[in-house]
Amino acid sequence: MRSLNLIPLIVSLCAFSSPGTAWENLAQRPDVRTFIRDMSRKHHFSAAELKKIFEDVTIQETILEAMAKPYEAKPWHVYRKLFLTETRIQNGVDFWNRNTGALATAARKYGVPPEVVVAIIGIETSYGQSPGKYRVIDALSTLAFAYPKRAAFFRRELEEFLVLCREERMNPTGPMGSYAGAMGMPQFMPSSYRKYAADGDGDQRRDIWNNPADAIASVARYFAVHGWQADEPVAFPATVNGAADDGLAGRSLKPTRTVREWLSLGVDSHGSLPSNVKAALVKLDEESGPAYWLGLQNFYVITRYNHSPLYAMAAYELSRELVSRRKAGNSS
Question: Which among 49, 55, 72, 124 is annotated as catalytic?
Answer without folding.
Answer: 124
